[in-house]
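Backbone shape codes:
===
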Amino acid sequence: MTQQVQRADFDRVMVPNYAPAAFVPVRGQGSRVWDQQGKEYVDFAGGIAVNSLGHAHPALVAALTEQAGKLWHVSNSLTNEPALRLASKLVETTFAEKVFFCNSGGEANEAAFKLARRYAIDKFGPDKVEIIAFNNAFHGRTFFTVSVGGQSKYSDGFGPKPGGITHLPFNDLDALAKQISDKTCAVVMEPLQGEGGITPATQAFIEGARALCDKHNALLVFDEVQSGNGRTGTLYAYQSFGVVPDILTTAKGLGGGFPIGAMLTTADIASHLAVGTHGSTYGGNPLGCAVAEAALGIISQPAVLAAVQDKHNRFKQRLNAINAQYQCFSEIRGMGLLIGAALVPALAGKAKDFMNAGAKEGVMVLQAGPDVIRFAPSLVIPDADIDEGLNRFERAVAAVVAK
């Protein structure tokens, strides 16, 4: 018999590093979720841009079920068919020539930063170790990645941080030009900052960063953990900008909800991770790769990617209408189905209030910092679910503004 649990059990048995909502979801289908009491929610959160094809997508369920009956795990002293097929698909659809699999975005970034350092030291000597990153960035929760991320609230309080990391203002090309030098091994950025407030890079900034990296023999690393896998309307956001990185990291939506991450790069750069220099016990496991292969096959379809922009426009038009009524947002920004509604100064710090009010009305939204409401729904969310979810969100807005 299945043990009965409830939200209060979280406080009893779990480490208190999260503060989950009062309701406990138990079932999802498409863009709808039901909790223990049977209440239905429209899901605009997507597991933080993870559930790229919604909940219980039949193609993903079939891929997982089929692989579960074959082979779950082998050590990385062996390879497996799903990993080879998925890596081949990623190589075919991106700039990359080589792929490293892991389990999360943090692990993918850890691998990328280690590779960037290793490549630079091998080619240019031990002094070429500086990593330049940007304020308000988020790159993961390992000590290395959280130190590269430009938000001290996540990295302070754990003792001495890894050295050789410089943080600059995002989208400030002059600041980057002044800082970068021949001792810089990599410039690391999210083409569209997620946790930092859904802030896209400018075209000039991305192009300028590429040119400066080329000038100083530094690698350009794009963290596409949140912006990748169709989220912005192209398979990866770098394709929207027309600027190719040297290393790209991906996770979140890659597995459509199954934990998997990957680092993509060129053959020349990859050659500096020789046998034994890096690894991941579960990385490239058959279950994760089989599900990701199915997800990527759907996400990469031109019709699916084209529809993302149409859905973006539908969201933006309605959010602007809500704003016209309630004057609550200073800006609606983002790309594709990663959308941020920045709150006006009078509502600063209240993003979580909107999130909680949304839950009461039956819609799941996110925050991206205290001042931005984040929407990251399924890439294939039906228009009817967008409309119904935004009806519920408007009622939430009315409730918060009225306080």
User: Anything to note?
Assistant: The longest helix spans residues 302-326. The mean pLDDT is 96. The radius of gyration is 21 Å. Residues 71-299 form a domain with the Aspartate Aminotransferase; domain 2 fold (CATH 3.40.640.10).
